[in-house]
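Minutes, project check-in
Item: structure for the 680-residue chain
Input as provided by the requester:
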Amino acid sequence: RRAAAIASKLGWARRVWINEERRNVPEDKRTRGAVLRSALSALGPVFVKAGQTLAQRPDLVGDEAADALRRLQEENAQFDDALAFQTIADDLSWDGPLAPNHWWPNPRAAMASASQAGETLFAALSPTAIASASLGQVYKATTHDGRELAVKVMRPRAIYQVALDYVCWTLALKGLRRLWKSQADLSEIATYVGECVWAELDYHEEAANAAEFRRAHNFLGFVTAPEAVYEYTGPRGTARVLSTLWVHGSTLSALPTKSQRVSFARMATEACVCQLVFTGFVHCDPHEGNLLMVPATDGEPEKLCFLDFGLVSRVEPHIMEGFARGVRCMIGGDYRGLVGAFRDVGFTPADGYYRRDPVTRESTPCEADELADAVRNALEGESGGTTRFGALATGLGSLSTRYRFLTPPYIVLLCRTFLTLEGLASKADPEFNIYLAALPYAVRRALAPATKEGSEALRNTLLDESNRIRWARFQELVDGASASSDVAFNSRDHDDEVVSWEDAAAEEEKASSSGKSDAAGRLMGLFGSIEGKPLRAVTRAADSIDLAKAITGSSATARSLRESGTAALASYMTAFFRFRKAELAHEAAVEAERSREAKRSALALKVLAVGHLRNLANGGLRGVYQLVMLVLVGFVMLLSAFWRVVSDVFVGIWSGRQSPNVNRSSGSTPPPPPVIPAVS
C-alpha cells in the first residue's frame, strides 16, 4: 500500500511536470514545483530530504521549482499543536500547564492554567510551531531562569514512517539492480542512508553530535552549533523532545547585502570542505534552513551556526586523503592522478579500471590513461566541469555506460552535502569554484596524513632519494596552504560600489600577505599537533646541510621559509602576550589553549632544530660554515619577529588614541620591520 501511495503521488507530480514542459508554460505560471513540493511533503521525511536537496539545485530543476521546494527547508506541513504539547508533557513527565496562559489538552491542567494556579514548565512557550522540519517541528520557549530555548518535538509515527520508507527504498533498489544487471548491491545504499536517517530519531545522539562538531571545528574560529539543554529533553533512548539554546541569526536569503551573503557562503564552504578532507566529521544536511549567520556580539566575531545534527557522516582517513588528492588533481588538471584518487575513495574497483560494453554490460580491463582521457573529455565538455562537484557527478554519470564506476554507500550523503553546498554558494556567486575553496584543507590533509600510505606519499613528495628536500613541490604545498576561500568567489564584496584599481591592488596585496601569514601559522601549528607526526618525521630525515643552504639562500623558496619562520615566531610571542593579558581580564581559558598550542609547536621545532644543528656541527667545515650562517639568519629572524609584535602593539595604542573623526588611514604608521637578508 505504501509503494502504491509513493507511485501515485510521484506519478501525478511527474505528469504535471511533463505536461508543463511540453506546453512551454511560462515560468511565472508554472505549478509543477508546488505540486512536487506537496507530493514530497505528503510522502514523509525521506522524501522531504530529497526535496530539500533539489531546492538548492535550480540548475537541475529550474528556478520556479527550486523556489517552491525551498519551502520544505522551513515550512513543512505542520502536525497538530495539541499533539506536540501532549508529547512535551509526556516526554518531560509534566502533569501541569506548560506555560502561563498556555492552552493544553489536559482539562485539569487547562483549568489550573486559567486560574494561574500551580507551577508551569516554562515561563513562556509559543502557542504554535515557529518552524517545521521533516522529522519534527520547533517551538520557542523561555525558562524560568531566562534562557531562550528551541524545543524540537518529533512527528507522530515518525519511526514507523522511516522504517516503512526504508523497506520501500530497499525493494526499489533491488529491482533496479536486476533491471540494470548491475554487479553492485544497490540495497547497501538504502541500508546506509536508512541507518543515517534512523539515527536522526535519537535526540540524545543528535545532541552528542552537535557537541562533537563544536569541538572538532573549534579551531576554525567561526563555526558553532547550539548547546543541548538536557533538563528539558526527553529520556535517553526514547526521547521525542530535544531542547537547545536558542540561536539568534539570519539565513542566507534574509541577509540584506551582497557582502554579507558572500561572507556567509565563504564560511559555509570553508567549514564543509574542512569537514570532508580534514576533520572527517560531516554535517550531511547543510541546506539553507540549517545554517544561520550569527552577528558579532560582545567582542565575539560573527559566526556560522549549523543546526540539526541528526544526519552526520564520519569519513575514514584514507577517504579524506583520497578526496584531498582529487582536489589537488582537479585544480592542476592532472586527470591521471584524478582516476588514481577515484580508486582510493572507492569510485572504481580496487584491482584496476574496466571498460564496459554498453550493450552486454560486460567489463574488460583498460589502462588508467584511457579512463583519464575519457574523464578529461567528459568534464571539459560539461558546463562547470572543472569547478563544480555537481558537474563532476554528472560527467561520471555519463561515463558509467562505458566504464565501470562504483557507488560506495558513504558517497550518497556526501553527494547530498556538497550538491546542497554548491547550490547555496551559487546564490552568492554564480562563478563559485568548490575545488579552489577546498585547496587549503586538501593541502593540510596532504601534510598531515593519517595512514601509512599517506605518510609514505608525503615523504616521497618532499624528499628525494638522497633526503634532499624537493623545494619546488614544497613551495607548491605552501602556496596551496596560503590560498584563501576568497579565491573560490569571483564576486566582489563591495555591493556595486566603484573601487579604484589602486584600492583593488592594495586589497589584493593585503589578502595575499594575510594568506601567507595564515599559511605559516597553519604549517607551524602542524609541527606541534598529533597530526603533524609524519611532517616531523620528514623534517627529521631531511639532509641538514641542504636544509641550511635553503634557509640562508637568496631564492624565492628561501625567502618564503624565512618569512614563515618569522611569522611563526611572531605568532608565538603574540600568543604569550595575549595569554598574560587574558589572565588579568579573567579570560584565560581560550587564550591558555592557544598559548599551549604555540608552545607545543615551538617545542617540536626546537627538538628538530637541535637535531639538525648537531648534524651541522658534526658535518665538517661545510657543516660548521652553514651553522654560523644559520645562526646569523636566525638572529635577524628573531629581531624581525620581535619588531612585528612591537609594531602591532604600537598600532593598537595609536589607533585607540585617535579621535573617531580622524581618518585613520591617513594617520602615522610605524616604520616597517627590518628586512631579513639573504646569506650566501
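Outcome recorded: The mean pLDDT is 76.
No further action items on this chain.
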